[in-house]
Amino acid sequence: MTHTRCPGCPDGTKGPGKYLCHGCWTGLTMAARRALKRRDRQAIDRLQELYRQLGANVPLTKITITP
Ligand SMILES: [Zn+2]
Description:
By secondary structure, the protein is mainly alpha-helical. The chain has one domain. The chain contains 3 helices and 2 strands. It has helices spanning 22-27, 30-37, 43-55; strands spanning 4-5, 13-14. The radius of gyration is 11 Å and the shape is globular. It binds zinc ion (ZN). Residues 6, 8-9, 12, 20-21, 23-24 line the site of zinc ion.
């Protein structure tokens, strides 16, 4: 099992199948986490929504994910 770099912070690592490291994940709002945990056909779109906002330096607490 390999850990890859967390896209949300400079030195976090995330486990396989995870979107973010634990610290970043818990920094998201409850609503964002709930949306991201759903695995359906829109899951990839939501993940890209997350990564787009991380890339734009949106603070974790301000990231919104379409439910
Ligand atoms: Zn992180």
